[in-house]
Amino acid sequence: MPRFEVARPVGLDGERAGLLVVAFSTEPMERARWQDLRAGGALAVAVLLVGALGLGLIFHTQQRHLRELRELEAGMALRERLAALGDVAAAFAHEVRNPLNAVSMGLQRLRAEFAPEGATEYRRFVDLMQGEVRRLNAIVEQFIGLARPPALKPVAIEVDELLRELVALVEPEARAAGVRVRVAGGRTPPALVADRDHVTQVLLNLVLNAVRAMDAGGALTLGAAATREGAVFTVEDTGPGIPPDVLPRIFDPYFTTRPGGLGLGLTIARRLVEAHGGRIEVDSRPGRGTTFRVVLPERPS
Fold it and tell me: Considering 8, 46, 160, 275, which has the largest number of Cβ atoms within 10 A of its Cβ?
């Protein structure tokens, strides 16, 4: 056992009579020293860990703020582009709509008042031209949707009924494409007050896009659920998915990967959802399908 000794000679009558030795065990001192070292080491490690966590939190917060700033900048840039496009669209719609109305009225008169020989072929060509006029008018309506903010007419919406209507609307095209359409069950339908026509337009656009993405057939699932944020509609397909380099651009005006598409459907859909105070989210993996989520508050904000 380690000891600490103090020795002192002892004299008697001027002569050295012996040696006085006082000994102390150093074990308590060693134990205290090691305890101090362990406590100091633990404190140093704790300080380093707290410092590392603090730096990590600062880095994470900075990255989140930078990401939010980039998203805000992208949103502002998109709004500026939409505002510029809106001005062009308004002028375009004004100039094109009146001639289209005149052509449509002329075709209606031709069909009703003239019946030349070969009337069947005549009516077929008139119907064809009227169909093209309607298609052009639909394009003009899309441009108008960019040119002006949507006017909302909120009403109470029966969500289950809305989903059934969407299935009925898309069923013929889905059947022709070999796509099975179903409504996810087992969830309590959310309460929702919104513009029914606009919500239908948004969801129908997503549903038709999903059907047309599944050339070789597949499954399309519609759903709705109540959350703390309000109502969440889901449109999930088993198609090829959206490539990662394309995904950030799908809401940009005039961006499309489908031949003949205008690239305005998703732009207008997002504008209608944001007018309600909601948002559209998308999750897609190539080869594993795509899921769109439309989040709407219980009432427009």
Answer: 275
Q: Residues, the chain, total?
A: 301
- CA-based nearest residue to 183, from 147, 159, 206: 159
CA-wise closest residue to 147 among 90, 224, 101: 90
How many Cβ atoms are within 10 Å of 128's Cβ, its own excluded?
11
Distance set, CA 20 to CA 5, 23, 24, 25, 247 (Å): 10, 10, 14, 17, 91
**pTM > 0.85: yes or no:** no
What gap in Å lies between CA 236 and CA 214, rounded to an integer? 12
- Closest alpha carbon to 286 in 233, 246, 258: 246
pLDDT digits (tens, 9 = 90+) for 16-39: 667 767 676 777 777 777 888 888
Q: Alpha-carbon distance 30 to 34, whole Å?
A: 6
Contact 253, 267 (CB under 8 A): yes
| Assigned token pair, 42 | 């633990």
Structure tokens at 175: 């059947």
| Residue 65 backbone dihedrals phi, psi, to 5 degrees | -65, -40
Alpha helices in the chain (DSSP H): 27-113, 119-147, 159-176, 196-213, 265-275
Q: Report residue 157 CA to chain centroid gap.
A: 23
